[in-house]
Design brief:
Length: about 450
């Protein structure tokens, strides 16, 4: 089975390859093609993968290419993990927003809209190529902002594109752990959009254990989200939000913390990864250990400004475990390729799952996965406090898709102005002008 990774020179690709090395089941991936526009990054990542594979029998063969069509042909699965504009673009997204006094985070608020406007046209081109060159291929989308990018690609690939994120899985595992429940046996009632969802229940042996957590302040405050949001707020919600909702519930504090920080998250990662790839140009550099040290620093500093706002200090060792997006992707791929029925939280088209959204809206919910793809499971309606946020942000995503399709500056301004974290149409217009100025790729926004 052939797997193609778009963005194959990306820093987190070794996580995916490491998971592939641990898969010894029949029908596993035997060939991995890395595609990237940056040949030096491809070479660096291929070196890391080579050291990972040392001594592993039947390790998937790795090839690297800068030719997109070559990478797509014959692929059974495509992992799309591109970053349009690179980390330089992310750093610019953050700075333009913060200069206007609004949040510039990569997937939330103004920064997420700018990233979407840059990424959607490229993702659409990829989807069209895949539909033409490899129509039977399944596409697993890692690219952020995952919800809007998956929805853009689904217009050409239908249900053969599925978006993934490790945040809901990581959250569910942390809740299960503090409740003393086996995470692999727990069923999580999670609903929302990508980076905008809530755990409303966690079931073990048919019993919802979340009320027990919400009723115990000490237990509730013992893991990352409890410390991040505060136990009183979680108990008032009657749910545990995805960590990204901290940007909504504590927006003023988050913006102030980002403005006061010595550098933005994007700028930090840009410098960190520039250092990694620079060191990798030396053939004597131990590839795998250098990558692993860099990765550990990256994980430990994740959402550090938000934790500062909450006064919770550095991440605890027990909270460093993510949902393992590579594990989610492989579980999804195995379920489809081998018809190993499983349940996963994924980004898929709504169909009739949430009545407040139309059938084609991509949402993030538990799905049953089999050889025919991912099927969203029935879920209870959204609570009123969630309806407002979900429908408002979906309207923003639709405006982003409209702007990317039409090249309309008006649609782009609408996307920014409708977002709950951008409180002014005037500011929205300045944001569009600011982003067009720093991103040549947004020059397409030149129509009324």
């Amino acid at each position: 089975m052939k797997l193609t990774i778009l963005g194959g020179g990306g820093f987190r690709v070794p996580l995916v390859y490491g998971a592939l090395l641990a898969d010894h089941a029949e029908g596993r991936v035997s060939a991995v093609t890395l595609y990237d526009t940056d040949a030096e990054r491809l070479t660096a990542v291929a070196r890391v993968l080579g050291e990972q594979a040392a001594g592993v029998p039947d390790a998937p063969a790795v090839t690297a290419t800068t030719e997109l069509d070559e990478a797509l042909r014959g692929a059974d699965f495509v992992f799309s993990a591109i970053r349009v504009g690179g980390l330089e673009g992310r750093a610019a997204d953050e700075r333009v927003a913060l200069d206007e006094g609004v949040l510039g985070q990569e997937t939330v608020g103004a920064g997420g809209i700018a990233y979407g406007l840059r990424t959607v046209p490229v993702a659409v081109d990829l989807a069209q190529r895949i539909a033409r060159l490899a129509p039977e291929t399944w596409v697993i989308n890692f690219t952020n902002p995952a919800g809007v990018v998956t929805e853009a690609m689904s217009r050409y690939l239908g249900d053969r594109v599925i978006g993934i994120c490790d945040s809901p899985v990581g959250l569910g595992r942390r809740i299960a752990r503090v409740l003393g429940v086996d995470p692999d046996r727990a069923r999580i009632d999670y609903v929302g959009l990508n980076h905008l969802g809530w755990v409303r229940g966690l079931y073990a042996d048919g019993r919802d254990e979340l009320p027990r957590l919400l009723a115990d302040p000490e237990l509730l405050g013992s893991f990352e989200e409890g410390r991040l949001f505060g136990t009183d707020w979680l108990r008032s919600l009657g749910a545990v939000p995805n960590e990204y909702l901290h940007y909504y519930y504590f927006n003023r504090e988050a913006v102030r913390a980002y403005q006061d920080a010595q550098q933005t998250r994007g700028a930090f990662l840009r410098e960190q990864q520039e250092g990694f790839y620079a060191r990798m140009k030396d053939p004597a550099t131990p590839a795998l250990s250098t990558w692993d040290r860099t990765r550990a620093e990256r994980e430990a500093t994740y959402m550090s400004e938000n934790r500062e706002v909450a006064g919770v200090g550095e991440r605890e060792e027990s909270d460093l475990e993510s949902g393992g997006y590579e594990q989610v992707a492989l579980a999804l791929m195995r379920a489809v390729a081998r018809n190993e029925r499983t349940s996963l939280i994924l980004n898929v088209r709504n169909r009739t799952t949430l009545s407040v959204l139309d059938a084609d809206a991509v949402i993030e919910v538990p799905c049953l996965v089999d050889a025919n793809g991912a099927h969203p499971l029935a879920t209870d309606p959204l609570p009123h406090h969630a309806v407002g946020l979900v429908t408002a942000v979906k309207a923003v995503e639709r405006a982003v898709l409209d702007a990317a399709d039409s090249g309309s500056r008006t649609a782009a301004v609408k996307a920014f102005a409708l977002h709950p974290l951008v409180d002014s149409v005037t500011v929205a217009g300045r944001l569009v002008d600011g982003y067009v100025k720093v991103h040549p790729g947004l020059a397409y926004l030149n129509r009324p």
